[in-house]
């Protein structure tokens, strides 16, 4: 239950991403700076946290041992995740992006065969290829049905351009984020804590953000003070607090693909939090009865997802993930 609660708290802080990114776009800010500034601002906060815990040296040793791996999966997990989300904010409202992002519930489950689990047998630990949690996936479909109902009326009013450029990049990001996160969990093998891993991935993704910033400077110029301030808020709320909470939740169930799917399913709560945030901060339209029905399905799907997962997880399963 603890990983689920932590995951819900992570969803609350992640929701600020969709609200503030949309607000920055409406104010004329470029998605390029919304994306890159977040990670630039994350570095000092995370650096101070890890340094205060006296854990910098082990992190740098791990990164030195596999620099290419860190660069690759940090680019996938952070670069190919956040840049498309910010790009989509220029074409679709935050609620639609937040709703579309929930496809990561299914994306994470479909990635299971790319990883290995360690189970305890009579002959000792045994590595097996992860399997798609079909029952959990069915519960995810209920959550997605609720999300569709929440957004169907508003989505019908969007143009084809908004639907295409506002949705497809988010679908790509929904696979990149869990893939990069899980790969780095395998690479670290439990040797680094969540603070070290987030800092390491942030540092390893910086070359991408520097290149994107250079492109932004020559195409759209420097960001405004307002966008800089809002990007710093996103960095703190989503980049530091939410990411650390989410990674901590996934670390608690590392190696158990079914429970991992449940933790990733908690991110469906982002839609509810983003909806409330847009009502309060961006004066969005109040949800219809159909939308509230969708809310009920999301909540019900979350409860069923958790129940099915905990009911079917065998007690002999070890939490260690094979690399």
From TrEMBL:
The keyword Transmembrane helix applies. The chain crosses the membrane at residues 5-24, 30-50, 70-90, 96-116, 136-152, 158-177, 198-218, 230-249, 261-283, 289-308. Pfam families: EmrE. The keyword Membrane applies. Keywords: Membrane, Transmembrane, Transmembrane helix. This is Multidrug resistance efflux transporter family protein.
């Amino acid at each position: 239950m603890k990983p689920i609660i932590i995951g819900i708290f992570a969803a609350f802080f992640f929701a600020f991403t969709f609200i503030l990114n949309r607000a920055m776009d409406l104010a004329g800010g470029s998605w390029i700076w919304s994306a890159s500034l977040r990670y630039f601002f994350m570095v000092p906060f995370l650096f101070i946290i890890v340094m205060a815990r006296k854990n910098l040296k082990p992190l740098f040793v791990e990164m030195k041992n596999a620099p290419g791996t860190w660069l690759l999966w940090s680019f996938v997990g952070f670069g190919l995740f956040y840049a498309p989300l910010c790009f989509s904010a220029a074409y679709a409202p935050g609620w639609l992006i937040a709703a579309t992002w929930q496809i990561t519930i299914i994306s994470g489950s479909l990635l299971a065969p790319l990883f290995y689990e360690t189970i305890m047998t009579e002959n000792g630990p045994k590595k097996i290829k992860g399997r798609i949690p079909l029952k959990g996936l069915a519960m995810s479909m209920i959550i997605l049905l609720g999300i569709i109902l929440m957004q169907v009326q508003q989505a019908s009013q969007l143009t084809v351009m908004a639907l295409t450029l506002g949705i497809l990049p988010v679908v790509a990001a929904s696979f990149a984020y869990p893939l990069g996160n899980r790969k780095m969990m395998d690479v670290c093998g439990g040797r680094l804590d969540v603070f070290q891993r987030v800092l390491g991935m942030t540092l390893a993704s910086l070359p991408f953000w520097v290149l994107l910033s250079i492109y932004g400077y020559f195409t759209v110029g420097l960001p405004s003070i307002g966008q800089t301030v809002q990007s710093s808020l996103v960095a703190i709320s989503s980049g530091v607090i939410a990411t650390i909470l989410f990674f901590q939740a996934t670390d608690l169930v590392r190696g158990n693909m079914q429970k991992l799917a449940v933790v990733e399913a908690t991110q469906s709560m982002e839609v509810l939090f983003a909806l409330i945030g847009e009502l309060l901060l961006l004066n969005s339209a109040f949800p219809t009865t159909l939308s509230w029905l969708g809310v009920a399905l999301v909540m019900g799907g979350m409860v069923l997802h958790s129940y099915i997962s905990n009911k079917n997880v065998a007690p002999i399963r070890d939490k260690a993930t094979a690399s």
